[in-house]
């Protein structure tokens, strides 16, 4: 399966077509017998109960049961870099399974760090980050309370 397939359908971006990562992803599609069409889509048609027909400006139409698409999205903000966050080759913020970046106290969720850019995934990542932040703050509070208790006992 191609990890970042949404870049394959955004073929009007000439830099994407020339990039090494595009060619790598294209090879993955070929190896997995998945067709990749680079023509401009001119029209989508679906009649009740029939497959979706995708018409292209050139070449023959393609029929399929359903389509799923995503607009090309990328990190537009310079804030992660300004904070010192590490970015991957796609410009997404690197984070662990709890959404924590390599910068202490900086968490990321949603489009800034996610490979799958859907609202439901962003909400789940936000919940994961919130839980991790809560745990971090509780640990800080416990440490602060332990310090205060030790200081009072002197």
Structure description:
With 154 residues, this protein is mainly alpha-helical. The protein folds into two domains: 6-64, no CATH class; 79-152, FAD/NAD(P)-binding domain, CATH 3.50.50. Helix content is 39%, strand content 8%. It has helices at 6-9, 14-18, 20-31, 79-83, 119-152, and strands at 41-45, 52-56, 62-64. It has a three-stranded antiparallel β-sheet with strand order 1-2-3, with no helix packed on it. The N and C termini lie far apart (62 Å). The model is unreliable at 1-18 (pLDDT under 50).
Q: What CATH first level of the largest domain would be assigned?
A: Alpha Beta
| CATH second-level architecture of the largest domain | 3-Layer(bba) Sandwich
Q: What is the percentage of strand-forming residues?
A: 5-15%
Name the strands of the widest sheet in spatial order.
1-2-3
Concise account of the structure shown:
The chain contains five helices and three strands, in the order αααβββαα.
Features:
154 residues; mainly alpha; FAD/NAD(P)-binding domain; three-stranded antiparallel β-sheet; 5 helices; elongated; disordered N terminus
